[in-house]
Amino acid sequence: MKRKFAVLMSILLMSSSITGCTTQQKAYFDETEKMARWESSETEIAGKMVMKVPVTPELKEGEYQTQELKFETVNVDINAEGYTLNESDGSATKAYVKMDLISDKKELNIKDIKIYVDNENVYISKNYLDAVMGASGQPLPDSIKNMPQEYIIMSTALDTSVMTEEEASASEQYQAMSEYIESMTLPEKRGEILGKASKIMDIVGFSVPVNKAGRTYTISLNSDQIIDMSVKSIDKTVLNIEEILKIMDLSPEFKVSKEEIAELRKQYNETGKDQIFQAMAVAKETIKGSEMTTKESFTDSTYKSDIGMKLIMRDMMDLNLSMTQTAKKVEKRELAMPDLKNAVSMDKYMDAFMPAEMPQTQPVAAVSSAK
Fold first, then answer.
1. Distance from C-alpha of 325 to C-alpha of 44, rounded to nearest angstrom
2. How would you write the chain as a 3-class SS string?
3. How far apart are CA 331 and CA 333, in angstroms?
4. Which of 22, 142, 324, 356 minimizes the number of CB atoms within 10 Å of its CB?
């Protein structure tokens, strides 16, 4: 039962961000929908991230840390370029990204990261995983260093054959949720979806404010606004769950009985509400001062976004991120995925990284091995 409601809450949250219910949000969705129909496009990303993280002091045996936390600053420049190819009927998408991370910390200085995506698999260049695993402080074993494949392959499909009944059920619900969200972008269903979203968002009171000037859209939120909207939305969702479910008219996987609704509401009123409000109050103070701004501009053949984010996690981390992304329509060109002979599954890679805990096996380059 809890899983069903967790999935439902995910759908509600995504519904609010994907469809929107104000005039400005609908106009913004129109623009993103047009951009998604571009047959082929090129993208460039340039960003800068500055993090302040606590320094772990070196303590002798039996010694305890008594001094105030000290922080170090880590700088990372992000540069990426990519290409996306969409089939005209929307049935398939291929994408490629090449990215460089340039940092004053050796562990985060990773260049020539390559990522390929198609409808079945994600290919990530092995040098990125090598750098991430090496950052743990454990030296890379020879089995990793001598691995000839250039890519790690991960399947986007879920293999239910090795799942328990409970896991398979969760997988089916997740798949149903994905299909429901995907259906929201279908032109023939857009009017219906927008109508439902408008009613639901009015009920739960969760609506991200979007400002529109011509074809430029801006969003500005701080941590207090995000926490307050979330708390109110959860409360109103539980209070009005029957009405929301009726509007959503979901598939059988999500059918919720009256008994389940009554039990959820009982648990929420007895302990859940207090626990959520207490947790949110703590979160509000922990991330106080955090904020995010976005500015996105569209034309018929170009797109530009500027993102600014400040994330404060008290006594843990301060992060400042600024990023600019540009995209443009280009002439269609084919995009080939890496040869399977040049890829190894994530499972095989991890087996090779931890031979002491798991028997080491030779990489097998086949899609079936990645699933």
1. 6
2. CHHHHHHHHHHHHHHHHHCCCCHHHHHHHHHHHHHHCCCEEEEEEEEEEEEEEECCCCCCCCCCCCCCCCEEEEEEEEEEEEEEEECCCCCCEEEEEEEEEEECCHHHCEEEEEEEECCCEEEEEHHHHHHHHHCCCCCCCHHHHCCCCCEEEEECCCCHHHCCHHHHHHHHHHHHHHHHHHHCCCHHHHHHHHHHHHHHHHHHCCCCCCEEECCEEEEEEEHHHHHHHHHHHHHHHHHCHHHHHHHHCCCHHHCCCHHHHHHHHHHHHHHHHHHHHHHHHHHHHHCCCCEEEEEEEECCCEEEEEEEEEEEECCCEEEEEEEEEEEEECCCCCCCCCCHHHEEEHHHHHHHHCCCCCCCCCCCCCHHHHC
3. 6
4. 356
Q: Terminus-to-terminus CA distance in the chain, angstroms?
A: 29
Distance CA 41, CA 331 (A): 8
Token pair recorded at residue 310: 């400040």
Averaged pLDDT, groups of 10, the chain, 371 residues long: 58 54 76 86 96 77 65 94 79 86 90 90 92 80 90 70 51 55 55 71 79 95 90 85 82 75 87 88 94 96 96 92 96 92 90 61 42 40
118: tokens are 């198609």
The pTM assigned to this predicted structure is 0.76
How many angstroms separate the CA atoms of 23 and 345, rounded? 46
